[in-house]
Amino acid sequence: MSVDLHGKIFGSDQRPALVILHGLLGSGRNWGAVAQALEGDYAVHVVNLRNHGQSPHAESMRWSELVSDLEAYRIKSGLESFVLLGHSLGGKIAMRYACEYAERVLGLVVVDISAKAYPPYHETEFRAMRRMAVGNLLNRKEAEALLSDEVPDWALRQFLLTNLMRDEATGTFKWQINLEALYASLPHIRQNSLREGDLYAGPSLLMRGGRSDFVEKGDLEAMQAWLPSLQEILLPKAGHNVHVEDRSGFLDRLQEWLKVNTLD
Questions:
Q1: Other beta carbons less than 10 A from residue 35's beta carbon
Q2: How confident is the model at residue 67, as a pLDDT?
Q3: What would the pLDDT profile of 89-120 be if each residue is shown by its tens digit?
Q4: What is the pLDDT, as a whole number, of residue 250?
């Protein structure tokens, strides 16, 4: 069963639509600056996945459900067709959706993720977040200190803490994400979202960071079995969060590709 995804729209609804899907443990607000840069050409829908941001919680994260969520959002928003961009987990969902609803997708942009199974990752971050008694926290500084031993990278800690919020009713802290459901779903969402026979032949682009190991040599060619028009853009200065670590390069190359492939 689908859930009613929360989305924020940047730009005029008279323009072509572009839907952005964030990655695991992220939210739509991570993409606000990108959406603002693109709103001159598109009505940019920045969507929160189930169990993330302001979208509803659910117990499972099956690919069929995640795709159904997006299709329900499309119908609710009155979109006949749109460009679809997904980062990391959002990229896996975007690829699957494009294959199932090819007639709805004007173009597909996959950001730093491959169509393959991945070994375990984010275990340390989930362990650190799950062991925190967030209801007892006095402030965000205390939360950061509790994460620092297991998550020494400052930028990653800040990213994780975007999911920490105060409960309006009680005033205590809580995780906005459905932490336990996401943790239980890790073995599934590490798998390839695409199946034998899936196909999206429309314009498609893989944007990857040169300092990221999420996309490896040979992945592009393997992905072309499902996405035969897939092109690749490498941003050598960026890691996995390409849109943050080289935002100007990301936007320049993305806008150039979008203009050629999705705008009249």
A1: 21
A2: 98
A3: 999 999 999 999 999 999 999 999 999 999 98
A4: 98
3-state secondary structure labels for all residues of 135-157:
HHCCCHHHHHHHHHCCCCCHHHH
Domain 7-118+192-261, second-level architecture: 3-Layer(aba) Sandwich (3.40)
Q: Are strands 173-175 and 82-87 parallel, antiparallel or unpaired?
A: unpaired
Task: Indicate the SS3 state at residue 37.
Answer: helix
Q: Where in the chain is the domain with CATH 3.40.50.1820?
A: 7-118+192-261
On the CB side of 198, CA atoms within 13 Å amount to: 20
Side chain identity at 105, as an amino acid letter? Answer: V
| CB within 8 Å of 241: residues ≥ 6 apart | 87, 112, 159, 209
Q: One-letter amino acid identity for 23?
A: G
Assigned token pair, 20: 């952005």
- With the C-alpha atoms ordered 186, 101, 230, 35, is the resulting torsion angle positive or negative? negative
Predicted confidence band at 264 (pLDDT cuts at 50, 70, 90)? low
Choose among 110, 82, 134: nearest CA to 207.
110
- DSSP letter string over 201-231? -S-EEEEEETT-SSS-TTHHHHHTTT-TTEE
- CB-neighbour burial class of residue 89 (10 A; exposed 0-12, middle 13-18, buried 19+): buried
Nearest Cα to Cα of residue 76 among 102, 112, 47, 38? 47
DSSP letter for 45, please. Answer: E
Closest CA to 229 of 100, 107, 117: 107
* Euclidean distance between CA atoms 38 and 98, whole angstroms: 21
> Which amino acid is residue 183, in one-letter code?
Y
For position 116, what pLDDT does the model report?
A: 98
**Please, are residues 51 and 186 in contact by the beta-carbon 8 Å criterion?**
no
